[in-house]
Amino acid sequence: MNVEEFRDYCLAKKGVKETFPFDEHTLVFKVMGKMFALIPLERIPPQANLKCDPERAIELREEHDGIITPGYHMSKVHWNTLFYENLRDTLTKELIDHSYDLVVNKLPNKLKVELEKL
Question: Do 115 and 15 meet the contact criterion of CB atoms below 8 Å apart?
């Protein structure tokens, strides 16, 4: 998966918008205003930060040592950094879905209702 495919996959999800809230080099994907993915566009090799269940995050880091690491400049408990070009596309998509779902499940009911209407 390359950055364009990563971006397209995120944007295809319901209620997602892309922003540059930190600087012009860090692309952030939000669902209903809540962040679920970041891509630092100038990092080589390409990488992304995704939210993750803490227990699963540890398992993923052990299973994909050096390819999935604790979130760079993020909470090391709740975020992972993925060197996504080194992962199967199916796993990357699964982890994007997981991050999106974690954020959606924590949304206030009012925002969940709005999201369902989209």
Answer: yes
The number of domains in the chain is: 1
Residue whose pair of structure tokens reads 């080589």 in the numeric block: 44
The per-residue pLDDT for range 60-71, each reduced to its tens digit, is: 999 999 999 999
Alpha carbons 102 and 77: distance in angstroms, whole number: 14
Q: What angle do CA 23, 33, 48 make, to 5 degrees?
A: 50
Domain that holds residue 71: 3-117
pTM over 0.85: yes
Residue 95: which H helix or E strand, with range?
Answer: helix 89-106
Question: Could you give phi then psi for residue 108, rounded to 5 degrees?
Answer: -60, 150
